[in-house]
Structure formats: C-alpha cells, structure tokens
Amino acid sequence: MANRIVLGWREWVSMPGLGIVGLRAKIDTGARSSALHVDAQWRYVEGGAPWVGFRLSPGAIGAGSIEGCAPVHDEREVTDSGGHRTQRVFVRARLRLAGVEREIEINLADRRGMRFPMLLGRTAMARVFTVDPARSFLHGKAAPGLAAPHSDPSPP
C-alpha cells in the first residue's frame, strides 16, 4: 500500500489512443467500472468483429469534438448510482494519469448531466492508486485539448 500513488477525488486524465488530453475525471472508489461520456455511438463490423464508433466533446462548448472507434471488448449491464440498469458497450483504452500509463476497461455512456465527462472506477485504479478524498488535482492540470490518436499495442 505504501508504494501506491495518491490521487485526489478529481484528477486530469488523458487517453492518447482515443485522442483525448486533459479530461476532467471524478475518481470514484464506489464505482466498479469506469465510464466515458459520449454524445453519440454507433456499432459496425470490421474484419468480422464488432466495433463501436463514438463522438464526444471533451472540452468547453465550441472547443471541438472527437470521433473515435475501438473494437467492442464486452457488452454488459451496468447499474448507475440511481439504481437504473442499462446495457453498455465496453472498450479498452490506454489511460495516462499521474505519470502512469495502463490499459483499462471503459464503458461508453451518456453522462451529459454529470459534472465530469469521465468517471474512473476502482478496477482502473487497482494495485496502483489510492485516493485521498479530501484533496483534488494532485497531479497538475493537463492542458485540455485533443491529441493525435495513436496505437500502442504494448501491454500495460
């Protein structure tokens, strides 16, 4: 436990493979899975495998949007904090936080009414991070914006 990196209850995260830099995330140990707000999503088949395309606006209104795509990793039922169950698509993406990069599972959701476009759940933090709920943005403010998408096939 002593070697774990301490996070505040909110942090700046990046997902360079999806073209996302400087996204505000709520760090939520009460949530098992992580969720990313998408404005729209659509399914298609590529090379015989299911894929999902999506569009999100990670920054301020008028700051631009990102269209991305990823293979569907899984699709399962998720119960939100209000007890509502919905079927969600899960993708895998590389998360960059506090100088650490790791592959995590993210479900795509409509988080339009939420203050944070990203919710980082406990499975994404396992064995690397711990949370101090009295603190926030401990690892600096990343410059919000878009990054050029790239693929990194190396394991976490």
TrEMBL record:
The keyword Secreted does not apply. Keywords: Hydrolase, Protease. GO terms for biological process: proteolysis. Pfam families: Zn_protease. GO terms for molecular function: peptidase activity. Coiled coil: none annotated. Residues 6-141 form the Retropepsin-like aspartic endopeptidase domain. This is ATP-dependent zinc protease.
